């Protein structure tokens, strides 16, 4: 049986060491499109080491992300074709602001396995802590086509109803032609984001942008426009990856202010009739 849910969730967590410095943070921010205009004081907080703060979504790439752990799926009870694996969603919870330089221990495990019938969803949980205590908890929802039907729990719904009113704010962010090439230097070397021939084999006309890059871009837009540019106000941030966006396109980000402490987002591709990119997206903030 390809997936043994009980065995997977009972497996010993993997522990790895992470380290990063201001150059890693700056590179990540540049990969999200930071630095335009280059002399804007708001952008200098992402690009200049003397003013640097860390966008919370940096947690997804700190220390190279999960790339060094084989995507985190090399655990007992999980035997699947990686070609059937998709990154379905991502959520991070911040326990305190991420420092511009740090070392941490990361503990990774399969927190849950959900049976969606025709597919399975693994919740890959990564917790990072340094000498001062917990830093962040990151949940990746891994969608595996064709591996459902094993009799497991369906798990909770991740859907967030969209408000039936006009958004409180709409911003657009142009994705540079070279943005995926720059973003992959933060650790995701999948050729799908760089090699045209590989992208065609995967069914795309050209390389696509990393989902986690869109994820970071949307959070940066929310911080810059709705949270007074203060990254420390972000408490948690989750999304569902609803579709792809290509370098050279424009990301349209709609924002709704919900009850106190929550901001809902969607992201779409402008040039393809607002094709969905991010959905069920919520920023929890102070």
Itemize the secondary structure elements and their pairings.
Blueprint: H1 5-10, E1 14-20, H2 22-31, H3 41-47, E2 85-94, E3 102-115, E4 119-130, E5 133-145, E6 169-174, H4 179-183, H5 196-201, H6 211-226, E7 234-241, E8 250-257, E9 262-269, E10 275-285
Antiparallel strand pairs: 1-3, 2-5, 2-7, 3-4, 4-5, 6-8, 7-10, 8-9, 9-10
CA(first)-CA(last) distance: 45 Å
What global shape is seen? globular
Per CATH, the superfamily of the largest domain is Hotdog Thioesterase
User: How many β-strand runs?
Assistant: 10
Averaging pLDDT over every residue, what do you get? Answer: 93
State the oligomer: single chain
Into which percentage range does the β-strand content fall? 25-35%
The helix content is: 10-25%
CATH architecture of the largest domain: Roll
Structural class: alpha+beta
CATH class of the largest domain: Alpha Beta
CA-based gyration radius: 18 Å
Alpha plus pi helix count:
6
CATH topology of the largest domain, by name, is Thiol Ester Dehydrase, Chain A
Give a description of the structure.
- With 286 residues, the protein is an alpha+beta fold.
- The chain folds into two domains: 5-145, Thiol Ester Dehydrase, Chain A (Roll); 169-285, Thiol Ester Dehydrase, Chain A, CATH 3.10.129.10.
- The chain is 17% helix and 34% strand.
- The chain is built from six helices and ten strands.
- The chain has helices at 5-10, 22-31, 41-47, 179-183, 196-201, 211-226; strands spanning 14-20, 85-94, 102-115, 119-130, 133-145, 169-174, 234-241, 250-257, 262-269, 275-285.
- A ten-stranded antiparallel beta sheet has the order 1-3-4-5-2-7-10-9-8-6.
- A hairpin with a 5-residue loop joins β9 (262-269) and β10.
- The longest helix has 16 residues, at 211-226.
- The protein is globular and about 55 Å long.
- The termini are far apart.
